[in-house]
Amino acid sequence: MVRRSLRVLFALVVVALAPLASGQPGHVVDLDFRGTFSASAVAGQTTGRFRNNGTEPLPVRSAVHSYVLRFETSDENGDPATALALLFVPDDPVDAGSLLAFAPGSTGLVDACAPSRPYVEGGSLDTYGAYALAYAGQGLPTVMPNYLGFFAPERRQPYFVADAEAHVLLDALRAAASVLADLDAALAPHASFVAGFSQGGHAVFAAADRAAGYAPDVPLTGLLGFGASGEVDVVMRPFPYVAPWILVAYADVYDGAIEPEALLQEAYARRLMGDIERLCILDVQAQYPGDPAALLVPELAAALRQGTLADAFPTLDRLMRANQTGLQDHGLPVIMLQGVDDPIAPLADQNRFVSRLCELGSSVRYPNYLRTRHETRYIGFEEALGWMRALAAGEPAPSDCDAVGRE
């Protein structure tokens, strides 16, 4: 019987995890039980967010126990690192044996922008934590990792760096699986899913590309993308607000291979490093122009628009290609939940990306939502949950590959 008091089990979990060897990716460093959300409290955290998107949430099925989980992973160079996640365990685990890792969208490069910071510091859940809680409220154990560089003030996030994103997501699954198995053997996952919104979609596909080599022990069952894209140039072209973050991250990670200030208009180049340290996602959208030509040097804006980056900026193009994700023949089932009017992950680009996934052997479910922009997390919640449950039950993965671009 899996319904047991996790308040009582918390001390047992700590004892059980202590003998595990440290220094291994996925090793649990510490586990902090934060309390229990009643079913009504889960509804209070999530209902308004769903209704704001024009949808009604499913009735909450379970109370949820909440933990802050710190675990070991490795950075983009393979060096040891520590990351932090929120772990939500349903009191009534309808989906015992399954585990979901949810990757957040862009929030910033520095520690102050960490998605989970408000909750870790005793406040409320952010939008991504609340969304992960919603799945747990339906009975599905869910872990939401923060990217490397968050809760580590000595470094910046390696933003849109595929290895770093993949490692933290796969090791969050390892750590969460270890906790669940120690809570109750019936909770040990035999089916693991990775889902992500926006930047999180890039991370999800990075994890898929690297799972066989980096984490063959993780039973990765399927991938979910909400407004997702595996292509870095596709992100920069329609959503230039984050272009300075990508440029700074690539300069950090690749030892100054590019000079970010030289790629920005002078007014923004002068303030770049100060902005990096103080601006999170809402701030950059308020303070930066939405037109790439107003933020980036004309040559770069034109190259992104015309698809000539390889000729005009070969080093930057090489770094972006090295961090393109999803197209390394992983063959995993995918559901891409796409807004027809998405201005950040445009439908035409997504059609092309999904076509490539299909060509590489993935069965891709590709629901397109009319009158919907970038935010498909809420309108697609019930469909995403049903898709995971079907795959976890061993049903064949559905495919829309014959109708890409025509749905």
Inertia-based shape: globular
The share of residues in helices is 40-55%
Query: What is the CATH topology assignment of the largest domain?
Result: Rossmann fold
State the CATH architecture of the largest domain.
Answer: 3-Layer(aba) Sandwich
User: How many E strands?
Assistant: 10
Rg result: 20 Å
State the low-pLDDT regions, or none: 1-20
CATH class of the largest domain: Alpha Beta
User: What can be said about the biggest beta sheet?
Assistant: 10 strands, mixed
- CATH homologous superfamily placement of the largest domain: Alpha/Beta hydrolase fold, catalytic domain
Average pLDDT, all residues:
93
What's the helix count? 16
Estimated share of beta-strand residues: 15-25%
Helix-strand blueprint:
Elements: H1 6-17, E1 28-37, H2 39-52, E2 64-74, E3 80-90, E4 98-103, H3 117-120, H4 127-137, E5 142-145, H5 162-183, E6 191-197, H6 199-214, E7 220-226, H7 232-236, H8 243-253, H9 266-278, H10 281-287, H11 292-295, H12 298-306, H13 309-312, H14 314-322, E8 334-339, H15 347-359, E9 364-365, E10 368-369, H16 381-392
Parallel strand pairs: 4-5, 4-6, 6-7, 7-8, 8-9, 8-10
Antiparallel strand pairs: 1-2, 2-3, 3-5
Helix pairs in contact: 1-5, 2-4, 5-6
Could you describe the 3D structure shown?
This protein is of the alpha/beta class and 407 residues long. The chain has two domains: 6-231 and 328-403, Alpha/Beta hydrolase fold, catalytic domain (Rossmann fold, 3-Layer(aba) Sandwich); 233-322, no CATH class. 41% of the residues lie in helices and 16% in strands. It has 16 helices and ten strands. It has helices at residues 6-17, 39-52, 117-120, 127-137, 162-183, 199-214, 232-236, 243-253, 266-278, 281-287, 292-295, 298-306, 309-312, 314-322, 347-359, 381-392; strands at residues 28-37, 64-74, 80-90, 98-103, 142-145, 191-197, 220-226, 334-339, 364-365, 368-369. Strands 1, 2, 3, 4, 5, 6, 7, 8, 9 and 10 form a ten-stranded mixed β-sheet that branches. α6 (199-214) links the parallel β6 (191-197) and β7. The longest helix is centred in the middle third of the chain and has 22 residues, at 162-183. The protein is globular and about 55 Å long. The N and C termini lie far apart (43 Å). Mean pLDDT is 93; it is low at 1-20.
